């Protein structure tokens, strides 16, 4: 059964009637620009073909109900405040709450979810869920919520209702990406540019490798990185690390007394520049040449930002040894996925090389596939 069919069937099973419609929102990979979003910096994600589908319809009882193929018993709630709905239902209650807080009258609705975005793998199943639900509620209620405002509403659900201190990257990618494009986003102004991302035309491909490494301490470490970045910006007297350029970096590092803060700041400042350099190369159609920037981004995450684990470092190294033009971890870190820029005919051999390296180290086997840039959230 396809994901849309599964969502439709789950709706009928739970609520005994047909859904009024189907809305889909994708997971994403971030090509480059890691942990830069909450530093007011730059990111460059593209949407995955994997997506979360919300089958939805109006609710006669004035409440919101949501179920998932992963949790078939509906979670039912009325008007709530953060903390009142917990567990996975909080992502949905959070969207209702954030939309209400933004001044919109949210239509009571019944929702059933199905997804093929891997959960907890750094491909942003949480933002896919929020964005699918948000888009469904907006359409069902006929709400006038401009596209550029939507990511911040979904982010607020995740930050202030679920309690995960994530930046604007994931929701922006799920809502604003376009098929065949990477999304160049300025996380301060929310200005975007759709960058044509034609890999096949150049004989290239992006291999996504799910490390299947268990996520550990993700929230705590993420929060700690955020705090370090804020401390560094404040010590430097700038609103955010975005305001330090690579040319100013050496002087800035001298001012920071603490070695950990120095390394965290160096990652953010150089990573922002790598995003700009990647965009410039893509504009010129020099896709292959972004490889070294991807690998430099990984080295910076491993050595300066310290958010990688052995499984992702091993995948990057094995992919490079197998001939990848560049490779890096993508997503918040401490596990999750790696992406490798490869010649299109090397997908199988690269995936096999990574799997061999995992077997030698006794790691759980990785899962690899070629990713193309899919569409953003929409009614389907
Ligand atoms: P990621 O966004 O990297 O996949 P997160 O930890 O941010 O990882 O989000 C995963 C959580 O989102 C899950 O633990 C679950 O609570 C919720 N979630 C995502 N997709 C679904 C779904 N289809 N059904 C139920 N819950 C989901
Ligand atoms: Mg998430």
UniProtKB/TrEMBL annotation:
Pfam families: GalKase_gal_bdg, GHMP_kinases_C, GHMP_kinases_N. Residues 10-58 form the Galactokinase N-terminal domain. InterPro entries: Galactokinase (IPR000705), Galactokinase_CS (IPR019741), GalKase_N (IPR019539), GHMP_kinase_C_dom (IPR013750), GHMP_kinase_C_sf (IPR036554), GHMP_kinase_N_dom (IPR006204), GHMP_knse_ATP-bd_CS (IPR006203), Mevalonate/galactokinase (IPR006206). It comes from the Bacteria. Keywords: ATP-binding, Carbohydrate metabolism, Galactose metabolism, Kinase, Nucleotide-binding, Transferase. Transmembrane segments: none annotated. Residues 280-359 form the GHMP kinase C-terminal domain. Residues 91-175 form the GHMP kinase N-terminal domain. Its EC number is 2.7.1.6. Belongs to the GHMP kinase family. GalK subfamily. This is Galactokinase. It comes from Actinoplanes couchii. The lineage of its organism: Bacteria, Bacillati, Actinomycetota, Actinomycetes, Micromonosporales.
């Amino acid at each position: 059964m396809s994901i849309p069919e599964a969502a439709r069937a789950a709706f009928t099973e739970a609520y005994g009637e047909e859904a009024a419609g189907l809305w889909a929102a994708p997971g994403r990979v971030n090509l480059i620009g890691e942990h830069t979003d909450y530093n007011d910096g730059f990111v460059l994600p593209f949407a995955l073909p994997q997506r979360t589908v919300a089958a939805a319809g109006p609710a006669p009882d004035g409440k919101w109900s949501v179920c998932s193929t992963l949790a078939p018993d509906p979670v039912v709630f009325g008007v709530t405040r953060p903390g009142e709905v917990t567990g996975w239902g909080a992502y949905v209650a959070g969207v209702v709450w954030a939309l209400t807080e933004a001044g919109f009258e949210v239509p009571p609705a019944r929702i059933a979810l199905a997804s093929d975005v891997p959960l907890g793998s750094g491909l942003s199943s949480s933002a896919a869920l929020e964005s699918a639900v948000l888009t469904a509620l907006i359409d069902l209620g006929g709400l006038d919520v401009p596209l550029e405002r939507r990511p911040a509403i979904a982010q607020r659900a995740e930050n202030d209702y679920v309690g995960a201190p994530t930046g604007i990257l994931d929701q922006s990618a799920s809502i604003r990406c376009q098929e065949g494009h990477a999304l160049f986003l300025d996380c301060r102004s929310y200005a975007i540019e759709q960058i044509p991302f034609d890999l096949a035309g150049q004989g290239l491909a992006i291999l996504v490798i799910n490390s299947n490494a268990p996520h550990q301490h993700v929230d705590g470490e993420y929060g700690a990185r955020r705090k370090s970045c804020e401390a560094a910006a404040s010590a430097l007297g700038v609103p955010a690390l975005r305001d330090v350029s690579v040319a100013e970096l050496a002087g800035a590092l001298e001012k920071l007394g603490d070695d950990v803060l120095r390394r965290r700041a160096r990652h953010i400042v150089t990573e922002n520049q790598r995003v700009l350099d990647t965009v410039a190369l893509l504009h010129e159609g020099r896709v292959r040449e972004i490889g070294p920037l991807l690998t430099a981004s990984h080295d910076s995450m491993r050595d300066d930002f310290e958010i990688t684990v052995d499984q992702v470092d091993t995948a990057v190294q094995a992919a490079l040894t197998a001939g990848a033009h560049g490779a890096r971890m993508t997503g918040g870190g401490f596990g999750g996925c790696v992406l490798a820029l490869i010649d299109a005919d090397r997908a199988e051999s690269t995936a096999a090389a990574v799997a061999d390296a995992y077997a030698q180290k006794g790691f759980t086997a990785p899962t690899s596939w070629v990713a193309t840039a899919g569409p953003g959230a929409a009614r389907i």
